[in-house]
Amino acid sequence: MTGQTSSTQTPRRIVVAGGGPAAHRFADAMHARGLDGWHVTVLTEEAHLPYDRVALSKALTDSDVDLTLGTASMWDHDALALKTGERVIRIDHAAKAVETAAGNTYEYDELVVATGSDAARLPIPGSELTHVYRTLEDVWSINKAIAGLKEKLGRRVNAVTIGGGLLGLESAAGTEQLGATPIVINGSPWLMNTQLDEGAGQALGRLIEAKGFTVHGGVFPSEVLSDDDGQVTGVLMADGRIIDADIVIVAIGVKPRDELFRAAEGAEQQFQLGQRGGVVISDDCSTEVPGIWAIGEVANFGGMCLGLVAPANTMAEIVADRLHGGEATFPGFDTATKLKLSGVDVASFGDAFAKTEHSLEIVYADPARGVYQKIVTTDDAKTLLGGIFVGDAAPYTSLRPLLGRELSAEPGAYLTAAGGGDAPDTELPDDAILCSCNNVAAGTIRDAINGCGACDGNAPVQELGGLKGCTRAGTSCGSCVPMLKKLLETELTKSGVEVSKALCEHIELSRQELFETIRVLELTSFEEVMARYGTGAGCDICKPTVANILASQNSAYVLDAGRGTLQDTNDRALANMQKDGTYSVVPRIAGGEITPKKLGVIAAVAEKYNLYTKITGGQRIDMFGARLEQLPEIWKELVDAGFESGQAYGKSLRTVKSCVGSTWCRFGVQDSVAMAIQLELRYRGLRSPHKLKMGVSGCARECAEARGKDVGVIATADGWNLYVGGNGGATPAHAQLLAKDLDDETLLKYIDRYFMYYIRTADRLQRTARWQEELDGGIKHVEDVVVKDTLGIAEDLEAAMARHVDTYVDEWADTLKDPERLRRFRSFVNAPDQKDDSITFVPDERGQMRPATTEEKALAAQEPVLIGASIPVRARDENEV
Hints:
By secondary structure, the protein is α/β, with parallel strands linked by helices. It is built from 26 helices and 38 strands. Helix 1 packs parallel to helix 8 (309-323).
């Protein structure tokens, strides 16, 4: 053991070889424990500050994203030095010094080796033409290569990823987001075979293929093929097949960077190396050479080296503890993993393969849905040993901290996909690890919440952001954040602290309570609401929320009777504002069906007003670049031609996407276009807590992607299957089956109830997926209310929807009828006919126009303003002070 030094002595020198996450965590841990008597020098071969390799997929799709770990100011400490571009190439443990490739020598009293690992390469012909997925430079190179190939080839790029593990799937998902066709080659018969058993792997394969990925499993590549110019053309497989490829990425694993130990003089006597690489460490993370430690992926413990963030962080903390006189020991590897692939839920932890003697496996599998859930317990079905979740990993968050402990209910109760509702609530013991990445126990979090010394000043921490900063829980992969939030709310409730659900500082009611109050009391204005239940003048949270609630209960013109001052910018203009201050125009194209004549109208309007046109993902045509004063002119032409507002600006129904259906398609079993149009015309203009999207597919092939929508309808031979709670966006979710084989009338009835129940009970800006997740009982509760009418409110919900359908009026048609309403649409209040000349367009690369950059605007000729001339005053937002 090495004790802490006194600040009066010469500082002891710590050199860290490597600058990845493990090295950063060690430096941070030393900083947190105090650097009196120490000086830490971190030598990293990369040009960057230490960054988060777990989040590399973000850098693959966004080259500008900042993955820097912690704050750069940490390195300003006098006792901390970060040297970039310094790769350690030799350890001279006799002289207690390291040498770098730049020719520099750094002496040490303690050496911490955190050199990590390298991406494994394929020993096959053509491997030099492949990319790997390991560093920022690697993913930037992939991004640049795909962009160049798209331009060069003029078509969608075939991106082959070799490797079906965690990194391989992340890489493939990134190429798909970059606009390439993702193809995965996996030597094992199923994906993620290290973490998943066969049933789970096959379920994952179905989910991946449903997202448009092509998977070739159970066969290995034998050569990367190319043309005479060195351009990749394909991958030759061991079975003789050739898979077309334009770019090949290898993500088959990593190998420890242990060359420092192998190159050391007499290393075979001094350092013990693992059979598969890495330097062997003891449970205090020390090597066999005194004063030399190893942490992270280069460290071999129990015969294993693992590339996971949790054990690397733990090792870093242990070495820092030991250097400060502590006795911490490494408990072994935590192999829990959670896939960070949008729209696909996968998690594995503990003894997932049931290798423990006499262990039990409790399994629920639904191959059609791509759902697989397994819990492994001791033979008495009481103690949790591990689990696997694919397609629905909701139980993982609450089960993960209970590993090795007795369950509070029978194991089957935790298999939520079987239809039994949410997993049972379990109070975590103080020593249960809630955040495995940072090794934070539930007791540490409770101490912080209750002000028992976990943070400086012993002050209670009663909000989520402060709790994360204080304890580090939830600051790495983020998978424990829901459990952290739940523990915070539970502890506050126990302490008698009311967990506020207030809408904002001006209204103490929650959105649900406010909705019911306005509905029951039939309040019709913001002033009435504030007089009874609010204080002050309101804010940008409560104003648009009240406006939304009023609009969802009353189809009156949204900008009349003072409601215009409550709306968001887009709602006030009845159009979406763009980055340059212009607006987009989106007419409704119900179900994506449009006549050639109406197409001609859109073309004529776009040409007349020089608008940029784009077909959207919702089967509509967006027209961009309209000035505020042009909106009424444009909409008059569209309304006269039979168009109406597509409500792209409101928290309301956006689109109902449909496939061709049985009218034309030889696979269609129902008329999906007719149903989509009926649904869009029924629910158009329906104001809700968040935007709503729907999809209708005419058969099980699901071309309309209905299960990615808030409400999805999929045809069967016997009617329609109804799915609810699907969302795209930053946190995608698959819609869940609510009812099967419905006739048209029943389908509409259930959707009426579902939408209106969501509108009444969801929080502000809460999508249907998150709303369903937070409902007590989840989809089972939705089924009880919507299908079984257990609350006895179905008739009321249907009546509310009927009122909306009967009173709907197109907002732009109404606007054009009233000169007073048209006064809103002018750029300058005292010069109604003057245009805003600050808006400038230039031709784009594809023959349309785009907003000019700042530099391009500067080059434009500017007319001088005459002294004494009347200067037009820009129209203000009605909320502007």
